[in-house]
Records
---
Amino acid sequence: MTGTFRSGSEAQTRAMAAGLAAGLQPGAVLLISGDLGAGKTAFVRGLAEGLGLDPAEVTSPTFTLVHEYRGGRLPLLHVDLYRLETADLDEIGLDTDLAAEGVIAVEWPERLTRGVPGAIRVTIEDAGGDARIVRVSGEHEGHEGRTKHA
Ligand SMILES: Nc1ncnc2c1ncn2[C@@H]1O[C@H](COP(=O)(O)OP(=O)(O)OP(=O)(O)O)[C@@H](O)[C@H]1O
Ligand SMILES: [Mg+2]
């Protein structure tokens, strides 16, 4: 699902993400951009739902950089880089086996010092009230893409 979508509610954003999750392959990386409160974590809850995980367990990682959720179709690694100045996905202690088998969803990917080949980019823009513009691009080469660092 590459394209631009309009969401009118948190539930719609979640449903959109759940639909996207259904097509994800092991090793998929989603870079989720948007201002504070745009709905990035809401989007990750939708991903969890779509992977058969309990969305209620997905919280904003506060002092934990990475949250791992297992038990769904694919494991989900939820990464929030907000508190870091710069970061490198290969150096923040992701469980590499889990990362290869699962889906990595990154909030605040602007902190990354290098790109992630094959990543899916999601940007969420506040369009006033509960309206959001969600753009999805760069789908996706799964694990192959992620391991081929430039
Ligand atoms: N269409 C929408 N899609 C997503 N969230 C929405 C929408 N409309 C309203 N909201 C509200 O916006 C807030 C989004 O919060 P969320 O924690 O997901 O943002 P975030 O982008 O993760 O912020 P942060 O940068 O602080 O991590 C929630 O309170 C949610 O209910
Ligand atoms: Mg968040």
---
Amino acid sequence: MYKHITVLKHELIEMLNLKPGGVAIDCTAGGGGHTQLLLEKLGSEGVVIAFDRDQQAIDHLEQKFQKQLAARQLILVHKPFSNLESFIRSQKNELVIQAIIADIGVSSPQIDTPERGFSFTKDGPLDMRMDQKQTTTAESLVNTLNMEELKTILKSFGEEPKAHYIAQAIIREREQSPITTTSRLADIVKAAVHYKSPSKTHAATKTFQALRIAVNKELDELNNLLMQAFSTLATGGRLGILSFHSLEDRIVKRQFNKWAARNQKIDFHSIPAHAKHSTPPPEGKIIKPFPLKPSDDHQIDNPRSRSVRCRVIEKL
Ligand SMILES: C[S@@+](CC[C@H](N)C(=O)[O-])C[C@H]1O[C@@H](n2cnc3c(N)ncnc32)[C@H](O)[C@@H]1O
């Protein structure tokens, strides 16, 4: 049973300005909520190409969209979305891509299935791989990285202020026996940061986020996706990204601002007069000046949507 509530489903798709008969790409098909709406908007003459690197998601999508797959309205790609450009290039026909979307979170089945090892609230193996074919797991990182490497991951991907103490505790504990479960890691982190009073966020939240990002190379994937998506889009096409934490949103915001030539810290006084006129024109137009956030009702229906930010840019 695959259960995932799609975040900002209509809001995102409405901002894409889709025309029937076009081609769109869903980079993170998951439960197929956005994919479904893309298919409806593009109609029977349209084509949706949908990526996911998770076998469980692919199995579900094959069941859910049997008809559309048979009609070649939907093409499923079981690969990381950093393969987008090479996949498009490998197609026989030249494709005019009207829209590309990515909903860069973890799916509910990934978090809710203890065996996947994403959650500190459920005991399971320390896995955290979105792509089950991949060899690196959270367990292999936690038990092999040295102190500095662990600290860097916790700081850069979790923004964890107590990275030093947590890394120290991990090294000490794994000398007793390898750390192989989510609950043992959560307990180690809790003890390392002297977590006592029940607070809104669990002491291990940042550590688990950091390890998940490291295992799945999530920021590299996102950076690759942005560059590949923008070069793959047709002129006038739109790229929409849903991100779930500030590290990702910052990457998206900065890159969108660069394309739109906005908020660039250029010191115009230092540019020679002849060069001022040759500043390159913007390559993109940001569709809404501020990121779209979920309404209060949406957050009540789906608490996991709380932190989402949606940004859309049009290629000029
Ligand atoms: C939040 S879910 C998407 C939910 C989907 N929009 C829906 O409406 O059901 C994110 C999905 O993206 C997939 N994913 C994350 N990073 C990926 C990557 N780099 N390449 C391909 N799929 C990825 C995950 O496996 C997961 O299934």
